[in-house]
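Lab notebook, design round three. We kept the backbone fixed and only want residue identities now. Task for the bench partner: fill in a sequence for the structure below.
Input structure tokens:
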């Protein structure tokens, strides 16, 4: 789906005339759709009449751009028409064209609205996993009411969001779940669910299928029931999760097994992939360890950069032979696949694009750009807070009770900064793969408390990892809990409490410090604020 969408970046180009035409397409017609949407409807034959003269002229202009792009890149116009008939692909195309209209062609590409919103519907959960980024358990006291959630779904749809992934906590035990899915489907969005699978009996699997859920991602930590149960905090959970996977596969749901890989299970990843295949899953996804939520209490279980590198190579090798897709949420996977395929394959973080041949894949990888936080995707917390990524629960860029989704998406200063790879520092900042990968910004915040810092999970950032581990575990825990580094133009500062709201400059109560900073290769000078 995504490759078809992103190919249009190349097809449409961003020459000034095309861009002017695209900008005009952001305005709405009398039926409430944007002109770009109407033009694509006409292009695909979904709608031929009912437009005014201006709209018809606009449709012709857009068709001219698309046909010209097809000729230029030797791409069959009929093939493009075929792809664009899928309503989800069409939403993606609209988002890309809107992004080009607003921002021009950029690397990585910026979008008018995210492809994906991961929505933690609730904090309520029936398990107590050690690595839970949400520290889920009881429902939070201020979670959105059903009417508010319905309004949010409509806002996401109106903004042009392509797909929504419902997560938690455990979304399937929340009474609003099916109402939200139904509303999202009614509004034309693709719906995925991330679940522990515990409550998916045959009836639930069929219900998920019937309501139109298109993708079910089920977490599994081990091939060994006792290890999974210990990690999940509830005995018998492995058995029920396996049953949940089988039930999803049985009713024909697109089923994915996701594993957070740590020191405890890294040796059995190949076996987990085989188990996923034998159960009928379509995909195995490695979830990168991120030090947030309860995972901050198990930092010593994280993989070293070299262990992660070997794991990513294994995933790529397995994906070529095992017969199911093997992906990773580690953005370095994009680099590893490019390097190990000698530029012949692309596997960007979080999204599957597919294999191909020819040098243009490097270009495509640059457009897709690894870490998608705040650019291709963002997250919503149970109380309506919007964050760049589910793994950045404290980096709140707005709240949907107070602002519209599109306002937050377009106006947040932090999101703007996250979209620009030029802000990256140290090894990530000078890395030749920074457009393809960009490092995991959630790991940079979780470990170094600075979203521009190097991701200490990459072999190119071994220095940061080594320095980080020169602290003993208790020192690290204190540092991660109490101190946050922020950066202005002239130095590195720390503050007690959370600072990563809308701006990283100008927060109150600075506390000077002279530890940490050089250890991570951050630039001099530090501690110069009066
Ligand atoms: S140095 Fe940073 S940008 Fe480069 S590959 Fe490693 S994590 Fe990615
Ligand atoms: S910060 Fe980026 S790479 Fe890390 S989990 Fe979020 S989207 Fe993925």
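Proposed sequence:
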């Amino acid at each position: 789906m995504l490759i078809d969408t992103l190919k249009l970046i190349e097809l449409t180009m961003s020459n000034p005339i095309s861009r002017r035409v695209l900008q005009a397409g952001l305005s709405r017609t009398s039926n409430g759709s944007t002109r770009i949407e109407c033009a694509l409807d006409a292009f695909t034959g979904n709608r031929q009449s009912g437009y005014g003269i201006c709209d018809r002229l606009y449709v012709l202009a857009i068709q001219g751009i698309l046909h010209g792009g097809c000729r230029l890149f030797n791409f069959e116009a009929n093939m493009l028409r075929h792809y664009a008939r899928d309503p989800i692909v069409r939403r993606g195309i609209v988002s890309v064209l809107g992004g080009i209209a607003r921002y021009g062609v950029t690397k990585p590409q910026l979008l008018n609205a995210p492809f994906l919103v991961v929505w933690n519907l609730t904090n309520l959960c029936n398990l107590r996993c050690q690595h839970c980024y949400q520290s889920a358990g009881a429902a939070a006291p201020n979670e959105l009411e059903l009417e508010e959630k319905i309004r949010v779904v409509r806002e996401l749809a109106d903004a042009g969001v392509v797909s929504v992934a419902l997560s938690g906590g455990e979304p399937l035990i929340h009474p609003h779940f099916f109402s939200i899915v139904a509303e999202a489907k009614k509004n034309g969005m693709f719906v995925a669910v991330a679940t522990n699978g515990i409550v998916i009996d045959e009836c639930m699997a069929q219900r998920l299928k019937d309501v139109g859920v298109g993708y079910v991602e089920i977490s599994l930590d081990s091939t060994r029931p006792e290890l999974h149960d210990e990690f999940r905090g509830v005995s018998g959970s492995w058995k029920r999760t396996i049953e949940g996977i089988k039930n999803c596969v049985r009713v024909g749901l697109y089923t994915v097994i996701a594993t957070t890989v740590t020191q405890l299970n890294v040796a059995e990843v190949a076996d987990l992939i085989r188990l996923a295949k034998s159960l009928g899953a379509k995909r195995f996804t490695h979830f990168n360890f991120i030090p947030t939520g309860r995972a901050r209490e198990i930092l010593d279980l994280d993989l070293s950069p070299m262990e992660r590198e070997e794991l990513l190579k294994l995933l790529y090798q397995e994906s070529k032979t095992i017969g199911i897709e093997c992906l990773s949420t580690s953005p370095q996977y994009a680099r590893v696949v490019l390097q190990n395929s000698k530029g012949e394959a692309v596997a960007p973080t979080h999204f599957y694009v597919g294999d191909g041949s020819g040098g243009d894949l490097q270009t495509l990888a640059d457009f897709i750009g690894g870490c998608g936080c705040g650019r291709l995707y963002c997250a919503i917390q149970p109380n309506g807070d919007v964050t760049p990524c589910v793994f950045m629960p404290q980096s709140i860029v707005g709240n949907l009770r107070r602002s519209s989704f599109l306002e937050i998406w377009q106006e947040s200063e932090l999101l703007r900064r996250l979209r620009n790879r030029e802000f990256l520092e140290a090894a990530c900042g000078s890395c030749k793969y920074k457009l393809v990968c960009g490092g995991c910004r959630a790991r940079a915040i979780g470990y170094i408390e600075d979203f521009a810092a190097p991701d200490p999970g990459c072999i190119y950032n071994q220095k940061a990892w080594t320095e980080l581990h020169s602290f003993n575990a208790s020192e690290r825990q204190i540092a991660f809990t109490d101190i946050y580094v922020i950066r202005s133009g002239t130095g590195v500062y720390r503050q007690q409490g959370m600072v990563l709201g809308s701006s990283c400059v100008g927060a109150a109560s600075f506390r000077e410090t002279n530890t940490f900073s050089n250890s991570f290769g951050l630039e001099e000078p530090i501690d110069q604020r009066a």
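Keep this in mind before ordering anything: The longest helix spans residues 53-72.
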